[in-house]
Every structure is written in structure tokens, then in C-alpha cells.
Design a protein that fits this description.
The radius of gyration is 21 Å and the shape is globular. It contains 13 helices and 5 strands. Helix 8 links the parallel strand 4 and strand 5. It has 2 domains: about 210 residues, Rossmann fold, CATH 3.40.50; about 80 residues, Orthogonal Bundle (Tyrosyl-Transfer RNA Synthetase). Helix 3 packs across helix 12 and helix 10 crosses helix 12. It starts with 6 loop residues before the first strand and ends in a 7-residue tail after the last helix. By secondary structure, it is mostly helical. The strands form 2 sheets. Strands 1-2-3 form a 3-stranded parallel sheet. Strands 4-5 form a two-stranded parallel ribbon. The chain binds tryptophanyl-5'AMP (TYM).
């Protein structure tokens, strides 16, 4: 609890361009929860170097992502928006938690298996212990709730296991966090292969809608989206492409999948795809405009970076000192 409010933590990597999946699975929910909770939203640059990055590019993308958080509607006075690398407590807690995490647990992580297969030439220890750093992110702020897409659920589970294990030894040190998964946007799929998630790193640019895509590109990508030969807008597992488009339309319009089915009853896929494209454009256009304005305001973004890093450090240090004491590190002499 901070000032009587429950705490929320979440983060995104600044690698690649953000997709509609990132927006619908995470960012959109962040916006609806930010009044109710004391929120920490991190640009998780420490996680990014588990795969090779071009330094100047990573720096640029990290700043762009932080700017995008604000453009999406997160007020940096009410929400703590900061770079993970500016708060050394993440690494310090991560080390301690490494000593309370089993190799067997980490071996089971599907994201590790996927990434190791993709980057076979660089299966580094950081990639393996990635979920422990993620646990440190969350536990450092004593987060009650963590809004994420479905692909991060396994990492939330291990975070809860680590917290419970630590608490069982040392008493109630950590809040055990709950995941928050949205109803319709939790797993946005590729437009070209709807059995796969929409991903920043997809080689086929038509598979993903990027948040900075212009309206024509968005409309074109939806027109090309893979569907099926059923010719009916129905929300059922046999039609994964259509289900995905219904989910996207639902998130944009606030309509339930059943309402979407009714709206498009008897109408063709062409009509439906156009409507989905237009709905997405109407969500992304204002975001892109605010982003362009904010990007020009260097001093403002700099002040957000500075003030919020201080705030995050303040709360992180509180937890870290408590944990250091519990595990038996000597007290600091003032
Ligand atoms: P990242 O950067 O891959 O993704 C950021 C958020 O977007 C969600 N997401 C999706 N949701 C629905 N459909 C999709 N196709 C889709 N693709 C991505 C992700 O679930 C995530 O919520 N390890 C994390 C970042 C992280 C983090 C944390 C998150 C680091 N520490 C602590 C929460 C709490 C990651 O790489 O997310």
C-alpha cells in the first residue's frame, strides 16, 4: 500500500516497434487501472540486453517508449514512468532472488525456450534468469496487481512462487501479486498466422499493426488479414482469424464479441475488415498526434525521467533494505 492505495507494476521492453498486441494486452488496461492504484510503469531496458542491441538504437527506443506511455494517456505526475536501469534496486533484488529460484523452474519457462531457439548463438545467463529480474521488478514495489497479456502469465506464476518461498522463510516480506488480464485483448494474434501471437519481432511486416503505422498501412494490413472460407463473422475457435479481428474490434469499440457478431450478421468479410481497420485508426491517430507533440518537448520529457526515477528509487530502496536485513547483510553505518 502507498498512501492507502494498492500498488500496480508493469513494464514493456523497448525492443522493436510496439504492436497493437502490446497496446491491447497491456497499455489499454494500464489506462483503466491507473486511477485506482498507485502505479509504476517501467521501460525495462535491463531486460532488453538479454538479446544483442545496438546501443544508440536502444537508447532512442527507450525514450520513445517512455514518451509513448505519456502519449497513451498516463499522467507522469500520478504514475511513476521510469527506466528500469535508473533504479539499481532491480539488479540488487534480482541477485538475491536468484538465490531463491531453482534451475528446474527456469528451465520450464516457455519464453526462454522460444528465445533460446531464436538466438541460438547467444543463449546467455541473463536470458535464462530473465524471469527472476521480472520478479524483482514486481516485488520491489510490493505490487498487488500486474496487468499483462497472456504470454506473461507464466512469469507471473514464478514471481508468485518466489515471493511465497521467500515469505515462508523470512515472514511476510513481499506482497504476492495477482496478474490482471483483460477480457478481449489479452492475446492479439498475428494477422497473417492467427495461431501465433502478434509480435514485435515478426519478420512479416503484414503480420503486425505497429502503433506508429499510418492509416493507409493499417487499412491495407487489415484487408490482407488471413481469415477463412466460412463467410460469417462468428466468434468461435474454428475461425481464429475472425476471432482475432472480433477481439480487436471489441477492444476499440467497447462492444462485446456477441454484439459484434450481431452488428455484422449477414455482412461480408470485406465490410468487417474495413470496420476493424477504421476502428483501429480512430484509436491510434490521436495517440500518434500526442506522441509527435510530446517528442518535440525535450525538457518536459527530461523532467519526467528525472523526477520519476527519484520516486521509483525511493520506494525500491525501502523494500531492498528490508530484504537485505532479512537475509542477514550487515547494517549500513550512517
Ligand atoms: P513485452 O515488452 O514483450 O510486452 C509488453 C506487454 O504487452 C503484452 N503483449 C501482448 N498482449 C496481447 N497480445 C499480444 N500479441 C501481446 N504481445 C505482447 C505482454 O504480455 C506485456 O504485458 N517481460 C515483459 C516485460 C516486463 C514486465 C515486468 C511486465 C519486464 N518486467 C514486470 C510486467 C511486470 C515483456 O517482455 O513484455
Amino acid at each position: 500500500m502507498i498512501d492507502g492505495k494498492k500498488v500496480l507494476f508493469s513494464g514493456m521492453q523497448a525492443t522493436g516497434s510496439l504492436t497493437l498486441g502490446n497496446y491491447m494486452g497491456a497499455l489499454k488496461n494500464w489506462l483503466t487501472l491507473c486511477e485506482e492504484y498507485e502505479c509504476f510503469y517501467s521501460v525495462v531496458d535491463l531486460h532488453s540486453i538479454t538479446v544483442r542491441q545496438e546501443p544508440a538504437e536502444l537508447r532512442k527506443r527507450a525514450r520513445n517508449l517512455l514518451t509513448l506511455y505519456i502519449a497513451a494517456g498516463l499522467d507522469p505526475v500520478k504514475n511513476c514512468l521510469y527506466y528500469q536501469s535508473h533504479v539499481s534496486g532491480h539488479c540488487e533484488l534480482s541477485w538475491i532472488l536468484n538465490c531463491f529460484t531453482y534451475m528446474g523452474e527456469l528451465n520450464r519457462m516457455t519464453q526462454f525456450k522460444d528465445k533460446a531457439a531464436k538466438h541460438a548463438d547467444n543463449i546467455n545467463a541473463g536470458l535464462f534468469t530473465y524471469p527472476v529480474l521480472m520478479a524483482a521488478d514486481i516485488l520491489l514495489y510490493q505490487a498487488d496487481v500486474v496487468p499483462v497479456g497472456k504470454d506473461q502469465l507464466q512469469h507471473l506464476e514464478i514471481t508468485r512462487d518466489i515471493a511465497q518461498r521467500f515469505n515462508a522463510i523470512y515472514g511476510d516480506v513481499f506482497t504476492v501479486p495477482e496478474p490482471y488480464i483483460g477480457k478481449t485483448g489479452a492475446s492479439i494474434k498475428s494477422l497473417q498466422a492467427p495461431e501465433k501471437k502478434m509480435s514485435k519481432s515478426d519478420e512479416n511486416p503484414n503480420a503486425s499493426i505497429y502503433l506508429m503505422d499510418d492509416p493507409d498501412t493499417i487499412m491495407r494490413k487489415f484487408k490482407r488479414a488471413v481469415t477463412d472460407s466460412e463467410a460469417q463473422v462468428r466468434y468461435r475457435p474454428e475461425q481464429p482469424g475472425i476471432c482475432n479481428l472480433i477481439n480487436i474490434y471489441s477492444v476499440c469499440t467497447g462492444k462485446s464479441p456477441e454484439e459484434v457478431e450481431k452488428e455484422f450478421d449477414g455482412r461480408g468479410y470485406g465490410d468487417f475488415k474495413t470496420a476493424v481497420g477504421e476502428a483501429v485508426v480512430s484509436v491510434l491517430k490521436p495517440l500518434q498526434e500526442r506522441y509527435a507533440d510530446l517528442s518535440r518537448n525535450k525538457d518536459y520529457i527530461d523532467s519526467v525521467i528525472k523526477n520519476n526515477a527519484e520516486k521509483a528509487n525511493h520506494y525500491a530502496t525501502k523494500t531492498l533494505r528490508k530484504v537485505q536485513k532479512k537475509v542477514g547483510f550487515p547494517e549500513r553505518i550512517r
